[in-house]
Design a protein that fits this description.
4% of the residues lie in helices and 53% in strands. It has a 22-stranded antiparallel barrel. Strand 12 (258-276) and strand 13 form a beta hairpin.
């Protein structure tokens, strides 16, 4: 096997000494533990793994820019497929793609992506128990792979979410969307911080089963899609499906000081697809799509030390075929697994914690064949026979991380109190893209063409392989690109209380050996408790956030060079040979960043808590791709965007009792205006700058100046209600969502002729989408079965009133949002 390797940026060991010093200091300070903190809120460690948790709640609403969802919130709300993105529909800072939640392909299980305050969906930070779990392989190339992509480019099918988590297995989810603490780095959007369930002091076992079917859904598709049996093999239309989910949760105390939690789930879908193969035969095939989750923790107390070990495994795996003609089966997987060891110690000066983590993320396309051919004949037809597959590819990311942190006890200086937090992170990343085997394409042509097939050369009365010759042989070689690098981070933050004012200055410094950039990110927030009773708080902040860098920068021309094309005449002589070289341009990139300023108002209005904030994000140095005159693929920092985001959140401070019911409600309103430097922004760093002149709105502009197409819903209103009837063991939850349609642009297929130059330009026109109101509802009955057992039956209906809109920009096909669908779930807890 001819295997080519490209090695880039060998790992360095800068910063190892600093991490060792930080760890050593923590151990050296390990005297007898300090007295219990008098202010639990000040001394609480966000990464805490306490078996016995002390929760201190102040009588004030949640901080602006930070939203927390507990396990109870998750259990009560309609969460659809149970993905993170489904739950975050509640958050006013979060936006979703217009392509999400389509009517035609509801059987597929891929989680949706999110944008926070108008930033690229691949520039968010996802954490599990405090450690970064985001994928830096090729997250913008996130389209589902149901058929094989090009052999001269990356496979795709990735996601910025390294783990496809089942939210039912989580203890809490926090979203930081503004004034993000200096603890976090590696994002321009926001932070989604998840926490695995921990032992809560009570042994229990819980089981669940859920089901949904195509008969329970109303599909909205045009006749072209409905009749597309000839090429319905890409998961675009799934009218015949069965979806099921299974779950098992265990909490068990092992000793007085040690507890174990284990959570396992599977979400599976089976749906039918049809297509016509190269012989014009109608084929039917069942595809399977599934997501597995295994999450667990062991926590223990040893004197003044808290030790925790968490482990996690998720895998999304689905079927596909190479293409309609080269129909070799394939399997695409997005697999992740890892473990984190956490150590916490209470010291005289404060709390010390140390996290050590290891994670491996991979995207793997496994095809049954690595050879595909096009024959020259077909008996009884002039159509060539095609068969085979495109081989196997794999991309992976392996990370090890060491992250110490101190939260110091409060220090008094004059009339001010200081709460200092400092910490760091040393991380090694090993990334790899690999074509595992050589792939060969062979094309055969007739020695002599007949009206149908090839002329019979040997007189046997029919055409066959002996009547054709090999005319082309394309070899796509096995190869790999590896990228090993280290990155080092340090941060310092001080929360200063001075009378009714609170100031939170912070500083974060990041360095990595990939792009060799040193990024300094200042953070600052000020709060004024206007009347000194937490009823009114005014907030302002100014912050800088630096984003992420990706393996994809190194892949384009490297993969394209792993090939050789050969052409032959009828005598078997090689006539043309074409070889390719790696023309990858040198990387000289800055790290993308976003500058934020915000103002906010937080108010207790009688029974309501209100939060109003305005956020402006100015993003610079976004990465875009371009092709040079020499044929090189290079990247530049010409990407820019600007977002103004206004959000209002209202929530009942305490449950409202009406008769025998307890009621909670919240209302969120968001308005966003985003301008991006590339109107094709969905592809992000793989987008070439659009500098071509077009005619729009009465003037000539470049494509970059067009309104953003995706992740730019102007107005979004979200109402959530939860009604509990304890006497009947009932919980009724609703989520009502109004999304303004907004306006996008499209090519009108007409031309404008400049009267001065005589040049013709494409005319772009506005397309106005209709507004959409949907109601999702869930009813859950949870009666006691035995003295120590409870069961439940749950019915959830998405889009109860079957309201849909058409998001198409083409006159040739229609694209509707999802119609009404339902699922039924049963469970028991012992």
């Amino acid at each position: 096997m001819n295997k080519r390797r490209t090695y880039l940026f060998p790992a360095t060991r800068y910063g190892l000494g600093l991490a060792c010093i930080l760890t050593g200091l923590g151990m050296a300070w390990g005297q007898a533990p300090a007295e219990d903190c008098k202010d639990g809120a000040e001394c609480a460690n966000e990464r805490g793994t306490q078996l016995q948790t002390l929760v201190v709640e102040a009588d004030r609403p949640a901080d602006i820019g930070r939203t927390r969802y507990t396990a109870d919130d998750i259990a009560e709300m309609p969460t659809g497929d149970g993905h993170l993105s489904d739950l975050l529909r509640l958050n006013t800072a979060v936006d979703f793609s217009r392509d999400a939640n389509q009517s035609a392909n509801s059987a597929t299980l891929k989680p949706g992506e999110i944008s926070i305050h108008g930033q690229p969906f691949y520039q968010n930070l996802f954490t599990i128990d405090g450690l970064d779990m985001s994928s830096d392989l090729d997250p913008a190339n996130n389209q589902d792979v149901w058929s094989s992509p090009s052999l001269v480019g990356p496979t795709g099918g990735s996601s910025p979410q390294g783990y496809f988590l089942d939210v039912d297995l989580l203890e809490s989810i926090e979203v930081f969307d503004s004034n993000v603490p200096a603890t976090f780095g590696g994002f321009t959007g926001g932070v989604v911080s998840t926490r695995l369930k921990r032992y809560a002091g009570e042994n229990s076992v819980a089981l669940r089963y859920g089901i949904s079917r195509d008969e329970w859904e109303r599909f909205h598709v045009d006749s072209k899609t409905r009749d597309s049996i000839d090429s319905n093999y890409r998961g675009n239309y799934t009218p015949d499906y069965l979806r099921q989910n299974y779950g098992l949760s265990l909490q068990q105390g092992l000793t007085d000081d040690t507890g174990l939690t284990m959570n396992v789930s599977r979400r599976a879908s089976r749906f039918a697809q049809t297509y016509r193969d190269s012989a014009d035969a109608l084929r039917k095939i069942d595809f399977n799509d599934r997501i597995d989750n295994v999450l667990g923790r062991i926590d223990t107390r040893l004197g003044s030390d808290m030790l925790g070990l968490s482990f996690r495994y998720t895998d999304r795996r689905h079927d596909g075929i190479t293409s309609r003609t080269y129909d070799s089966p394939l399997t695409q997987s997005h697999e992740s697994y890892g473990a984190t060891f956490q150590w916490e110690r209470r010291l005289d000066i404060g709390d010390f914690s140390l996290d050590l983590g290891l994670d491996r993320l991979s995207d793997h396309l496994d095809s049954e064949e690595s050879r595909f051919t096009q024959a020259a004949y077909l008996e009884g037809s002039g159509r060539p026979v095609q068969s085979g597959g495109y081989g196997d590819t794999k991309q992976s990311q392996t990370r090890t991380v060491l992250a110490p942190e101190w939260q110091f006890n409060a220090l008094a200086f004059g009339q001010s109190r200081h709460h200092l937090t400092t910490g760091g992170r040393l991380r090694n990343t090993q990334s790899r893209y690999e074509r595992l085997t050589d792939v060969r394409y062979e094309k055969y042509d007739c020695l002599r063409r007949a009206k149908i097939g090839c002329v019979d050369q040997n007189g046997d009365g029919k055409s066959g392989p002996e009547d054709a010759y090999l005319s082309r042989a394309f070899d796509y070689y096995a190869g790999e690109v590896t990228l090993n690098y280290n990155d080092l981070a340090w941060y310092l933050q001080d929360r200063i209380e001075l009378g009714d004012w609170t100031f939170t200055p912070g500083l974060r410094a990041d360095w990595e050996s990939y792009l060799k950039n040193t990024d300094i990110a200042p953070r600052f927030k000020v709060e004024w408790d206007t009347f000194g009773d937490d009823s009114t708080r005014l907030v302002a902040g100014a912050n800088r956030y630096y984003g992420r860098s990706f393996l994809r920068y190194q892949l384009n021309d490297a993969i394209s060079s792993w090939r050789q094309l050969r052409f032959f005449d009828k005598n078997g002589n090689e006539t043309v040979t074409r070889r390719y070289e790696d023309n990858s341009g040198t990387l000289n990139l800055k790290t993308p960043y976003a500058d934020e300023w915000m103002v906010g108002w937080q108010q207790r209005l009688g029974p309501l808590d209100a939060r109003l904030q305005f956020v402006n994000r100015e993003s610079r140095d976004g990465v875009l791709r371009e092709e040079t005159e020499e044929g090189e693929t290079i990247y530049n920092n010409e990407g820019r965007s600007s977002t103004d985001s206004l959000t209002l959140d209202l929530a009942l401070a305490t449950p409202w009792k009406i008769g025998a019911t307890r009621n909670r409600a919240s209302l969120g309103i968001s308005y966003r205006d985003t301008k991006r430097s590339s109107y094709q922004g969905g592809e992000g760093y793989n987008t070439e700058p659009g500098q071509e002149l077009i005619y729009y709105d009465g003037r000539l502009i470049t494509e970059d100046e067009l309104p953003a197409w995706d992740f730019n819903i102007p107005l979004d209103i979200r109402l959530q209600t939860v009604t509990q009837v304890p006497k009947w063991y009932l919980t009724w939850s609703n989520f009502i969502n109004l999304r303004q349609g907004g306006t996008v642009t499209r090519d009108s297929r007409e031309n404008y002729q400049d009267p001065t130059t005589g040049l013709a330009y494409d005319i772009y026109e506005d397309v106005d989408f209709k507004d959409l109101i949907t109601v999702d509802t869930r009813i859950r009955w949870e009666p006691p079965l035995l003295s120590k057992a409870r069961g439940y039956v749950q019915l959830e209906v998405q889009n109860l009133f079957d309201e849909t809109v058409d998001y198409s920009t083409s006159d040739y096909s229609r694209q509707y949002t999802a119609g009404r669908s339902g699922n039924l779930e049963f469970g028991v807890r012992f």
